[in-house]
Design goal:
The complex is a heterodimer of chains A (116) and B (153).
Chain A (H helix, E strand, L loop, with lengths): L2 H10 L4 E8 L5 E6 L5 H21 L7 E6 L2 E7 L4 E7 L5 H14 L3
Antiparallel strand pairs in A: 1-2, 1-5, 3-4, 4-5
Chain B lengths: L1 E2 L2 H14 L3 E6 L4 E5 L4 H24 L8 E4 L3 E10 L2 E10 L4 H18 L14 H13 L2
Antiparallel strand pairs in B: 1-3, 2-3, 2-6, 4-5, 5-6
Helix pairs in contact in B: 1-3
The chains are: A alpha+beta (116), B alpha+beta (153).
Chain lengths: 116, 153
């Protein structure tokens, strides 16, 4: 288990979390992951980094600071993305029963404490 | 987008739209161009196809030397743009995709949508599609027709 993988431990321990990833912001590639087997982490990484990039551009263009956290609610779960240091993104996917409040806190802690 | 094989058109158009790739080239493993997007000169596309097929053949041989396993996609990341070169197999034979992308997209997106393109091509391949002999009697006519299809000349 790598140190980056250790960083994801607090996220995957939260009930209802189906996947937790560190993603390279520019490339949209998975740096580290912990997930259920049926989750397409490469697709999540590519699409969430694209979404994050568009959100950041929109936010800056409208005169606001870059976003801290993105939460996308869907029919059967949620996607949460947070900008981290070293041009990384912390990404979590929850199912129906996922506790998004705890996931937000864990992502913000990752943002504050760093991934080292 | 221009294609010699009409069934390639729709999946390739979708890939170009979704991945925001600048240039795309689909070719056989021997470097015969099947479809292209973004090229404006026939000389460029023929050179790119020959070089792309050469690179895939070289890395294939390298893989064989290093333990008999074929490499997957090859990525060359530059300052302003990157090149994604990936072999894949259809019932019509082994093909290669060459994608040039810029900062408006990402390698992850190109990789993801390229996977979808390959799946769609596998589905769309006509069951009767058979590779033609490279040096058929009507080679010159076919070459002219292919260039017209690819560049509208």
């Amino acid at each position: 288990m790598t140190r980056d993988h250790d960083v994801l431990e607090p996220l995957v321990r939260i009930p209802g979390v189906r996947a937790a990833l560190l993603v390279a912001e520019d490339d949209g590639l998975v740096v580290s992951e912990a997930s259920m087997t049926d989750v397409d982490t490469a697709a999540i990484a590519a699409l969430s980094s694209s979404l994050w990039g568009k959100l950041r551009k929109t936010s800056v263009a409208s005169g606001h600071r870059p976003p801290q956290l993105l939460q996308l609610r869907a029919d059967h779960g949620a996607l949460l993305v947070a900008g981290l240091e070293r041009e990384l993104l912390g990404v979590a996917v929850t199912g129906d029963t996922g506790n998004t409040g705890l996931v937000r806190l864990a992502l913000l802690a990752l943002q504050r404490d760093g991934v080292r | 987008m221009r294609a010699i094989e009409p069934w390639v058109g729709q999946p390739l158009n979708r890939f170009v739209e979704e991945s925001a790739a600048r240039v795309v080239l689909l070719m056989t493993s021997s470097g015969q161009v099947i479809a292209q997007h973004g090229f404006t000169r026939s000389l460029d596309v023929m050179s790119a196809a020959a070089l792309g097929a050469g690179i895939v053949a070289s890395t294939g041989e390298l893989g064989a030397l290093l333990g008999g396993e074929n490499f997957g996609a090859l990525v060359h990341q530059g300052q302003d743009q990157g090149v994604y070169l990936a072999p894949f197999t259809l019932s019509a034979g082994p093909w290669i995709g060459l994608v040039v992308y810029g900062a408006e997209t990402s390698l992850g997106l190109v990789q993801f949508f390229f996977g979808q393109l390959v799946s769609e091509l596998v589905e769309a391949t006509p069951t009767t599609a058979r590779p033609k002999a490279v040096l058929a009697d009507d080679f010159e006519d076919e070459l002219d027709a292919s260039l017209r299809a690819l560049f509208g000349e």
